Each structure stands twice: as structure tokens, then as C-alpha cells.
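Feature request disguised as a bug report, sorry. It would help if multi-protein outputs had a clear separator. Right now it looks like this:
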Amino acid sequence: MENVGDKSGSIRKRGFTILEVLVSLSILVFILMALYQSYSTSIFVLSSTTNLWKAMSHAQNELLESERATIPPPVSVNQGEFELDDPMSGFRWKKLVRDTTPLPGIMVRQVNYQLLWNEGKSEFTYDADIYVNPQ
């Protein structure tokens, strides 16, 4: 005779085993690590691109002033850093103006503008040149 209140043999227990939970948590951790790595890489690329764009824009504006000047810039070497309240803060600059002869009998003045900045452990530079009439 069967006991009416005892149904343990016919009822299956439903739920996850500890092994299934651990496997699913480890898969979740790997997915989250991959997403975090992707996010941090995209933030670094955005920062690098922003700094390069700032450097290019600033250098081109500086060279445009030399190109449009009525008097050519004197032969010189200047360098410095930007102030903390300047939009280019964190960058260093170097301006080299020299006379050069690219072809025999042709004298031009080369204006080289270089920007330097640090990102992490690396130093980056952007150089731009323009050639103007020395007279």
C-alpha cells in the first residue's frame, strides 16, 4: 500500500545545479570583460583623435598667419608651452624658421611648426611646414 502524502518519487525537483550557475556566471564575466576592453579602447582612440585634430587645426592656423603676413617671419627658433587656461593646454610647441634653397638659385623661407603632447607613456608630435618668400 502506498502512502498518499509521500510523492517524492514522482515529483521532479526543478532548478539549476551549482555547476550550471558557475558556468553561466563565468560566461557572463568573460562577456563583460570583452565589453569593458572595447569601451576603454574606444575612449583611448577618441582621446588620441581629439588631440591630433586639435594639433592639426592649431598648427594650420599658425602657419596661415605666417603665409598671410606682409613681412616674412625672421629666421629663428622659438619654443614653449601653452598656459593652463589655453585650449591647447598640455601641448608644447616649437617653431623653426630658416632659409633654404630647394633648387639652385631659388631661395625660400621654411616655417616649420611642431606640436608635442603626451598620452599615457607615449609622446606624439605633429609637424607642419609652409614655404614663404623671404623678401
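(second protein starts here, but nothing in the output says so)
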Amino acid sequence: MSIVPGLLEFNKQFVEEKQYEAYLTDKYPDKKVAILTCMDTRLVELLPKALNLRNGDAKFIKNAGAILTQPFGSAMRSILVAVYELGAREVLVIGHHGCGMTNLDTEGMVSKFIDHGIDPLAIETLENSGIRMEKFLRGFSSPAEGVMQSVKLIRKHPLFPKDIPVHGFIIDPNTGALEVLIQDYREE
């Protein structure tokens, strides 16, 4: 059974009781920071609490592994919008220990596609048109490697301003402890 009916019922009550008022803010990040991080469920509440961030303080961009796989993809576009349109003056890339993108099994993922009814011919067609599954589904050997790959891609991006610092961190998804990989002080 779907969870959607329960979500809709709760949402109606949430709005009627004006519970949203505790979260009112505008679209501009108060702390002028954009954070690229992983979509891991353990980080949803832990990461903002561990950084003392409240609703409205930061722009969060989430994907699998906090990695940028291409310079002109949606995550990089979001970072550029956060900087140029929404006033972010720093970028944080935050990976985490125990990430599912560590040593991701590309062949295993492709097998799961097929097990779920994706026609192998569709995968073959994608491969023949230049979409390489081993690149598209690429993970990393360690979360630190993934973070540094993203930091480097952001810094070297032809549309990213040179005066905006890009920092890299790893967070412990159990304790919230932050490990600094790189601090970038371009503005100072």
C-alpha cells in the first residue's frame, strides 16, 4: 500500500494548523552557503544540526554520493544558481563515511534494471549512443575521493567564480563529527 494517502492527510492538517509558520523564510540562504551533500537518509536531520544550520540558512543540493559526474549536469547548475542568483558566497561539499556510492557495483545495478523489467536492448541502445553505464553509475573508492573530485570539478568549472571558496568535508553519519579535507580561503 502506498504511503501517499497518509502523507496527504497529514499535510492537510499541517496546513490547517499553520504549522508551516515555524519554517517561514525566503529563498536566499541566510548564511550565504550552498552545500552539496549525499541523499543518505541519515543526513537529513543530522547534517543541519551538526552544522548548527536552521531552515533558511543554506541551499542544500543532494544526490547520490555528493559527487558531480558531469560539469553541466543539474547539480552543478544548482550550485551556479545558488552563487549567482541566490547570493551563496561559499560552497561546502560534504560526503560521509559508509556511503553507498563507495565501490558501487555497476554490473549489479544493470542486473537490477533488467530484473525490474528494463529491456536489455534499451541498455544496449544507451551504450551504443555513448551513455556508458560504468561512467554513468560510477561511484568512488572512498568518500574522500568523491568529495575531492567534486571540489576540483567546481573549482575548475569555466562558469564558477574564482573568488568563491569551495570546502570539502566528510561527516560521520552516526555522530555528526566533521572531518576537514580541504578549506579554501579564496575571499580572505
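Even a blank line would do. Unrelated, but nice: The chain has seven helices and five strands.
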